[in-house]
Amino acid sequence: MPFRRKNKFRPIFKQFIRLRENIQNRQKVLKFKKQKWKLFLKFYINKLRNVKKFKSLDHSRYFVTKHGTRGVSYGKRFRDTLHAGKKLRGVYGNLLKKHFKRKIKVALSTNRSSLKNSIRLDSTFLKIFEKRLDTVLYRAKFAPTMRSARQLILHGKVYVNQVQVKTKAYELKCGDNINLNLNCLELYENCILHSIKWAIPPKHLVINYKTLHILFLGNIESTNMANEFSFNLRLPKILVSYPRQ
Fold first, then answer.
1. Domain that holds residue 140
2. What is the pTM of this model?
3. Closest CA relative to residue 47, chosen from 17, 21, 27
4. Domain count, the chain
5. For the chain, what percent of residues have pLDDT higher than 90?
6. % pLDDT > 70, the chain
């Protein structure tokens, strides 16, 4: 399994302190009052107040420091790559490191064998995770978190092309139609009402919130994924250095 069984019901907020980033945009973090959260909340609230948060980030861009002698040591580069990988794994529900490295190899082999040289490696890599069923439910705002989306799938509330699917990592294809069981209608409505105020679903999904249907278009390459992440993913650094760790 690509997920840690022992961490299935364990809170994941402690890793936010080490990474200094609210990687899953959990609003619950703002209500924490323990001493260990004070420094993190101070840093995070100041970041939310920053005007730069409204500027979309180009996740395929490789950022270079302004200072030539800063951040060039092996330890610093290793730590930055390790933290970047942990953040991206946390966004998609704490994937195992070996599963994450396997997907990097799949993206590399897919990009090499593709006849279209215009397809970027980072787009190929993100497409592997964005076409997962649990990710699509989360992007469509039918679940507040990745964990909640997986619970809906495991309990048999999700259907793909009128067939019940209980596989969390089910990979969708272009034209797949997803619908949800109406027994949890109140849960879906609460999630949509609290999410639609601040976020818009990506363009590769056609969503009907009245009938609870999702049409997966598959054109993830043409979707600007910068709006789906609140921090820089550092994808070039992950794709180049992460498999060696």
1. 132-217
2. 0.80
3. 21
4. 2
5. 13
6. 80
